[in-house]
Amino acid sequence: MTPPETASDVSTSTDSGSSWSANGKPLLEVKDLVKYFPVKSAGLIRRVVGHVQAVDGVSFTVNKGESLGLVGESGCGKTTTGRVLTKLYEPTSGSIVLDGTDLSPLSPKQMMPFRKDVQMIFQDPYTSLNPRHTVGAIVGTPLRVHSVVPRNKVLPRVQELLELVGLNPEHYNRYPNEFSGGQRQRIGIARALALQPKLMIADEPVSALDVSIQAQVINLLEDLQKEFEIAVLFIAHDLAVVRHFCPKVAVMYLGKIVEIGDRESIYGNAHHPYTQALLSAIPDVRQAQVGGRRERIQLEGDVPSPINPPSGCRFRTRCWKAQEICATQEPPLLQIGKEGHLAACHFAEPYDSAIHDAAKAQREAAQAS
Amino acid sequence: MFGYIVRRLIAAFMVIVATSIIVFALFFYGPSNPGQVVCMATSPQCPAERVHDYNESLGYYDPVTQQYAVWAKGLFTGRDIEFGGSTYPCPAPCLGISYYTRQPVTELMKERFPATLSLAVGATMIFFPLGVVLGSLAARKRGTATDRLLVGSSLVIYSIPYYLLALLSYLYLVIIWGVFPQPEYNPITQNPWLWFTGLILPWLVLGLATSTSYARFSRGSMVESLNEDYVRTAKAKGLAQRTVVIRHGLRAAIVPVITILGLDFATLLAGTVFTEYIFGIQGIGRQALDSIQDQNFPVISATVLIAASFVVIANLVVDILYSVIDPRVRLT
Amino acid sequence: MSSPVEDVTRPASNEPFLVVDDLTVKFPTADGLVHAVTGLSYSVEMGKTLGIVGESGSGKSVSSMAVVGLHDAKRTHISGSIRVGGTEIIGLSEQRMRRLRGNEVAMIFQDALAALHPFYRVGNQLAEAYLAHHPNASKREANEKGIAMLDRVGIPQPDQRARDYPHQFSGGMRQRAMIAMALINDPKLLFADEPTTALDVTVQAQILDLLQDLQRDFGSAIVFITHDLGVIAEMADDVLVMYGGRAVELGSCSAVMSKPQMPYTWGLLESIPELESDPGARLLPIPGTPPSLLHPPTGCPFHPRCRFTGDVPGDLCERELPDLVPGVEGAAHLRRCHLRNPAETLDNAANKREV
């Protein structure tokens, strides 16, 4: 058995905290997924002059009943990835294999039977629910569209679902504006659950909620995942929440995965400089005891435009380790250390502040001269 | 921007062409007998043979595509139109010859348009500032008695049918009380003062009536604008109240109002029929109404075409203006 | 050089620059009276940062806007006392209030894209802020000051960027521009209302660093409002926790964050996942939802959601509002709770969880 070389070869991940065992064949296999958005010129004849390379060759797998976290900052392509997986956007190229079937070439009509298997939870509970539909209609529509249950069984099923997410089943006739943010998010979850999907794509499911409510919704998602063995692609920018929820995490930057691995690898042993910078930027509650300012990795500059990403490694314009090879050769996503831990960097290694400071001093000296 | 304008002009042109085809088709397929109309305009006796001759000379029996082609060509090069044995030259842009006065329609338009234009400009000078100022005032004093008074009174005026408002003002202000002289159009080039006094009443009536909807709209737009974060920031900067309301609030609120103004103005240019009729202004609106009664097709079709052109161009101007005012709008 | 308009505030004696005393803010609405803030008291000294923590409906933004005078006087009932540099704000004439705003007291907001006017160039908006309080300055002077401030907050090529419109800036740069605009007149007190909530975490780190640098250089007092406890931990010297329009805990940052004395604060800290916590351990959420401000709960505002009401004799939590008083830790750490020894109770609960 050859050792896995790319992320898509990784089919299992063992983790000390995870109680879900892998079952061999992954539920979702994404390979070289690409999504470009055309940019048209402003002249008389509107030609396509470039592309927003939102997602540029992303590969990962998710096992049945497991969660994979997809983290990154704005513009990294994580939300677009989620949308492409549900075919809300058509992929430009690449494959999305769900339980053996490649979804990417399917037409909307052919996709219909598969829509039951992949559902999405959206970020903003205030705008993702139609304010003119009752809660019962919102949760019941998927059941009706897919004729999952006979007509007269829709309401009892809706009430069942409402109860499952912790809402009062008698409230099916109410409108979304009568509920709080956390409750609305639960409605969205109930809707996503209605078709008993195999895979749920949660796009920032708790970011818009109050802190005290976030934990409630996270616990709910955990319980539902365990009970119904639903795989979850958890897209978020809050690394602490992702760490709690997902045994496996992929870090994205400008349309590419720069590091992927299990919890321990990413949070305890990050090898890619961007992951390291990201982790160091997270404010730490324990700093209160220490007082003063925490030492952080400072990233220079802004995120480059996805229309014209830097050559070679996309992170090189902000990286303290960047050398010539970084501009000429794009680093492939390679295994480093533990099985299943991959990073895309020519100089992947654990964070060493000495190297960081030395590189910084060198750059400052070069600028001063 | 340049590419955008060119593309829009091409689209505008196509819209106007489409309009002209529709107008043409209406007259072609509708019940009409131009030969009869022309004949009746000059003599009470119209034997069928003469009518047939007229129709033939007008090209009425030719295929519709040929008629359209001839007409369209005339727009660019001018043509000679003959009926009743006489030939009338129609210089470019030729919009036809009036069945009644036998004048080129283009000339008729040129004669009557200044009146309509004066009406439109004058009324706009009244309703736009009035509407915006009152609307903004109501927005600032939202919920107070002032607001309710302004909104209520504008509603009252708005609910009076316009022609009634015009007739009543004419009746009382001109005939009975004699506050205003008989309205009429005097070219500004001849006598500016008479131009002004002759039009002041129709301006006021049309202006007041139209200002009501502008007041309502401005009020809504201002209320929204004053609730925006950037107005809160302006206040937090310690700016004077007037600066906050006008420079920050109104500046943003007025944008949608201006876009509506552009389209409204274009519609006004197409002729304010009630105003012209009731106050006796010889504009193209009045002319259009008369032409319909007289079945004077060339004038009718020309009016429709001109009105369509105004609106289409106003649309384009408004869109360009929008991009100039709002730097976030990039026209593609 | 022009001189600024004469300072409205008088140099303080020995009281902190900002003193809020028993502040109450109510809004009459169609549904009834909204008790947004009730009986709030706190103070901030120059050069120090007070972090106000709270969720939606806690009153943290409303109380801060009251200090800056941003509420519509006709639609708001404000009572109590707010003293900025010795001057009483409540009841102050609008004219004098305007001299304070943007000058000695400034505020930055969460969404910089919405907070900056979309139709005016960034440099223009900065110059406007300067001219508002330096009416004798020339336009050129104001523009130069604006560019200098953009430079000060770390925006590259400030003279060019000053000619851009807000939507042409990135999120982080826009927030820096807003900070520049707020600080252009050297305010003594700065309110920052969730300034980094909408930003990426790496950009947030940069902005927080910037604010700390500027505070060090300008010596201003900062009131930092947020719901993010990690940010509070890194930025604040003192912490005020608000719930249901009231202050429920007040003390130094290290005391409140490491040894919370009030079940709400404790609950918040327990419910957020951290990078070091055990990922397998279930989160302990605070049950229920934030209280209605139209009909606030009787007694303690937190009691409907509190796990520890059982530890208090009788129905005291339901009947009586606890006072904000110091606990066993000392006079500097105040909490609003009926528990006789909250530290002990909360510690026991935490230990039980870990077992």
Which structural traits does this protein have?
heterotrimer; A: 369 residues; alpha/beta; Rossmann fold; four-stranded antiparallel sheet; 12 helices; 12 strands; 31% helix; C: 355 residues; eight-stranded mixed sheet; 22% strand; globular; disordered N terminus
Corresponding CATH superfamily of chain A: P-loop containing nucleotide triphosphate hydrolases
CATH class of the largest domain in chain B: Mainly Alpha
In CATH, the architecture of chain A is: 3-Layer(aba) Sandwich
Biggest β-sheet of chain A, characterized? 8 strands, mixed
Which strand order do you get reading across the main beta sheet of chain A? Answer: 6-7-8-3-9-10-12-11
Number of helical regions of chain B: 13
The poorly predicted ranges of chain A are: 1-22
Distance between the termini of chain B: 7 Å
List the secondary-structure elements of chain B in sequence, H or E. HHHHEEHHHHHHHHH
Q: What is the CATH first-level class name of chain A? A: Alpha Beta
Report Rg of chain A. Answer: 22 Å
What proportion strand of chain B? under 5%
Unreliable stretches of chain B: none
Instruction: Specify the overall morphology of chain A.
Output: globular
Instruction: Give the overall form of chain B.
Output: globular
User: How many whole angstroms does the radius of gyration of chain B measure?
Assistant: 24 Å
CATH architecture of the largest domain in chain B: Orthogonal Bundle
Percent strand of chain A: 15-25%
CATH homologous superfamily assignment of the largest domain in chain B: MetI-like
List the strand order in the largest sheet of chain B. Answer: 1-2
Q: According to CATH, what is the topology of chain A? A: Rossmann fold
Question: How is this fold's topology laid out?
Answer:
The complex is a heterotrimer of chains A (369), B (332) and C (355).
Chain A: E1 28-40, E2 48-62, E3 67-71, H1 78-85, E4 93-98, E5 101-102, H2 108-115, E6 118-121, H3 135-145, H4 154-164, H5 181-193, E7 199-203, H6 211-228, E8 231-236, H7 239-245, E9 248-253, E10 256-262, H8 263-268, H9 273-281, H10 287-290, H11 324-328, E11 334-335, E12 342-343, H12 353-368
Parallel strand pairs in A: 3-8, 3-9, 6-7, 7-8
Antiparallel strand pairs in A: 1-2, 1-4, 4-5, 9-10, 10-12, 11-12
Helix pairs in contact in A: 3-4, 3-5, 4-5, 5-6
Chain B: H1 2-29, H2 34-42, H3 48-57, H4 64-77, E1 79-83, E2 86-90, H5 105-140, H6 145-159, H7 162-176, H8 192-226, H9 229-236, H10 241-269, H11 273-279, H12 284-294, H13 297-325
Antiparallel strand pairs in B: 1-2
Helix pairs in contact in B: 1-13, 2-3, 5-6, 5-8, 5-10, 6-8, 7-8, 7-11, 8-10, 9-10, 10-13, 11-12, 12-13
Chain C: E1 18-29, E2 32-44, E3 49-53, H1 60-68, E4 77-84, E5 87-88, H2 94-100, E6 105-108, H3 112-115, H4 122-133, H5 139-152, H6 158-161, H7 171-183, E7 189-193, H8 201-218, E8 221-226, H9 229-235, E9 238-243, E10 246-252, H10 253-258, H11 263-271, H12 316-319, E11 324-327, E12 330-336, H13 342-354
Parallel strand pairs in C: 3-8, 3-9, 6-7, 7-8
Antiparallel strand pairs in C: 1-2, 1-4, 4-5, 9-10, 10-12, 11-12
Helix pairs in contact in C: 4-5, 4-7, 5-7, 7-8
